[in-house]
Amino acid sequence: MIEVRNLVKRYGDKQAVNDISFTVEKGEILGFLGPNGAGKSTTMNMLTGYISSTSGSIRINGIDILEDPIKAKSNIGYLPEIPPLYVDMTVDGYLNFMYDLKKCKLSRRKHLDEICNLCKITHVRSRLIRNLSKGYKQRVGLAQALINNPPVLILDEPTVGLDPSQIVEIRTLIKKLGKNHTVILSSHILPEIQAVCDRIIIINKGVVSAHGTADEIARSITNQHKMTIRIEGTTHTVDDKQEIVDSLRKLDGIKYVRADMERERGIYDYDVETDGKTDIRRAINTLCREKNWNILMLQLSDLTLEDIFLKITVGDVVPEGAVSRPAPEFDINVQDGELVATEKVSLDKGGDE
Ligand code: ADP
Fold it and tell me: What is the pTM of this model?
């Protein structure tokens, strides 16, 4: 349904998108995830024919966006990050205007009624757009994208600036739309992508860093890099804890060890993280045998999408098949489930404007 090949966009010296390729199948919801400045909007704008690419190709439903832009665009409903609303129009006036602009041939009344019902804006149709809340404005933006029933929907950060209940509503709506449309959804909000999307592309510094379901991406990075181990020492006191932590830290390939909760009297869980290259389990077994300790439990931790994202964007692991680039330097924090990535600016390198 959507085929992107070797897409490049340069703004002067700035390489905003650098050789991106991916496909989206019919009926799929693809999440486009990346920190601010990663190149998401630039890619969306090229996909919708709003800006041209420097090189590469985009085919929507088999139609090249540059060769036959009008036909290709007729297959796309687009909700840009800032919805293109004429705020001095009523909702009804605006939707009718968009209906005419798109040269829609479907029964006007029935089609617009259906869309308004779906987007739950029927009761505000006579209101001026400027007087609507941000959540309702977003719904009107989504409604205009649905006019003429395009098979592809491209939604750029559709929940930015909405309150939590509005966010849930818009996500539910997108999920519903995904049943009959191919959807690309861009976001820097992890739970959003996890809640809504079938497949994820993580984009960073204009390149695809990882591609697949959250599980596939996690597996491709490593499945043995974080674990929790419950170890029974010999004294059943806190003395065991310190000795175990110190001994684990000395093993090759261990990056991080932390004693967690006391699970049974004098028996603790230890969170261990390896360098991602070393399978540490046998070395831990040997250590415990030598020391006369018992391993009561060893559990490989699931990587959350947050872990994956941080690993990929910070650049210490590049999954198999992904293009390897020098690791950009970021200060990344997760605040309320949102990624806030600030590129460390060096003297010869500009930051994101
Ligand atoms: P995202 O949507 O992931 O936040 P963008 O696609 O908006 O990222 O931007 C990618 C990079 O391209 C950023 O560094 C941004 O500053 C740069 N960029 C975007 N638009 C322009 C433009 N019109 N001129 C110059 N640089 C731009």
Answer: 0.68
Ligand 1: distance of its center to the CA of 28 in Å?
26
Show contacts of 126-129: CB within 8 Å, 24+ apart: 126/90, 126/91, 126/92, 127/90, 127/91, 128/87, 128/88, 128/89, 128/90, 129/85, 129/86, 129/87, 129/88, 129/89, 129/90, 129/91, 129/94
Rounded distance, CA 130 to CA 85, Å? Answer: 9
Pick from 84, 67, 205: nearest CA to 142: 84
For 213, phi then psi, to 5°, come to -75, 165
Ligand 1 atom having least distance to the Cα of 81: 2
Q: Which helix (H) or strand (E) holds 207?
A: strand 207-212
Over the stretch 136-158, which tens digit does the pLDDT of each residue have?
999 999 999 999 999 999 999 89
pLDDT digits (tens, 9 = 90+) for 312-336: 666 544 343 333 333 333 444 445 5
Beta carbon of 37 within 6 Å of any ligand 1 atom: yes
- Hey, what amino acid is at 265? R
Q: What is the pLDDT of residue 324?
A: 31
DSSP 266: T
Structural contact between residues 266 and 235, judged by C-beta atoms closer than 8 angstroms = yes
Amino acid identity of 13?
Answer: D
Can you tell me which atom of ligand 1 is nearest the CA of 45? 6
What secondary structure letter does DSSP report for 55? E
Span 1-47, pLDDT tens digits: 899 999 999 999 999 999 999 999 988 999 998 888 889 889 999 99
Strand arrangement, sheet containing 267-274: 254-264, 267-274, 226-232, 294-300
CA-based torsion, 284, 289, 293, 294: positive or negative: positive
